[in-house]
Amino acid sequence: MTNILLEKKGYIAVATINRPKALNALNSEVLSDLDELVATVKADDEIRALVITGSGEKAFVAGADIGEMSTLTKEGGTAFGKHGNDVFRAIETLPIPTIAAVNGFALGGGCELSMACDIRICADTAVFGQPETGLGITPGFGGTQRLARLVSPGMAKQLIYTAKNIKADEAYRIGLVNAVYPLEELMPAAEKLAETIAKNAPIAVRACKKAINDGLQVDMDKAIVIEEKLFGSCFQSADQIEGMSAFLEKRKHEPYQNK
Ligand code: DAK
Questions:
Q1: Closest C-alpha to ligand 1, atom 37
Q2: From CA 150, how far away is CA 177, in angstroms rounded?
Q3: Distances, alpha carbon 46 to alpha carbons 2, 41, 149, 242, in Å
Q4: How far is the centre of ligand 1, averaged over its atoms, from the C-alpha of 165 (Å)?
Q5: What digits encode the pLDDT tens for the residues 79-117?
Q6: Residue 129 CA, ligand 1 centroid: distance in Å
Q7: 119-123 and 127-129 as β-strands: parallel, antiparallel, unpaired?
Q8: Model-level pTM?
Q9: 202-213: per-residue pLDDT in tens?
Q10: Ligand 1 pocket, mutate which of 66, 85, 128, 145 (most atoms under 8 A from CB)
Q11: Residue 150 pLDDT
């Protein structure tokens, strides 16, 4: 991958979008690198949680690449939007949990990338926004859909219609991020969170992600059935047997094996 650094640390991995000359803006090459990131993470059974961040101290991702988009035709724009939407959906549906560690500007496609992750935490220097209507376009990588689902529809509409950015404290207030840290504490906090997740039984964690994501798409009667099936699927796994045996034997469970 030309524009993404991937570092494995035990059972977690940290992917850093690394295109500093354009504040990590998403051009077609970065989108293709994200395709490769998804494939790499999916193929590696050792990775139990993924952190996504941006390189440098200024930006997570400052949006889709405006230079590349500026000359697109209608067909080209649709194709670019589809590439972004497909890869963001692939990130959203990765079996393992994902954490966006937002270290600065998360504008347009950057805000959308963070919203394709399961959990967002940010630095106190972070800035979020969907500036697209100010550029003559709509959000194109899922912003109209994910922002309206994550915060209230009214707040999403205000942010998108006004194209106004918000700072970290406001992002926290509206529930867009789970926590705000001083910049230097962001990555340690993100990695600690990922490690905490990675210590739990991976089969169960993945089942929880699927249950929450799939269940949110259907009515409660169907959602509960989704949970029932995923709950059942955990039984007779080595980790379920060990976890429950350890409780009954009043001892700490052995490290979970993802089996
Ligand atoms: N694209 C390309 N280059 C960018 C960029 C971007 N989004 N953001 C920053 N850069 C580049 C700048 O051009 C500059 O390059 P040089 O001039 O040095 O060559 C370099 O990064 C540093 O940026 P600045 O000099 O501007 O740095 P400042 O600190 O002064 O300002 C800023 C930082 C983040 C406030 C500013 O760079 C900024 O406003 N950037 C643009 C933010 C933005 O509007 N982002 C949203 C992009 S729109 C769709 C598909 C996708 C999308 C929509 C539709 N369909 C197909 C339907 C997605 C849209 C977006 O994401």
A1: 62
A2: 10
A3: 23, 9, 31, 19
A4: 13
A5: 999 999 999 999 999 999 999 999 999 999 999 999 999
A6: 12
A7: unpaired
A8: 0.97
A9: 999 999 999 999
A10: 66
A11: 97
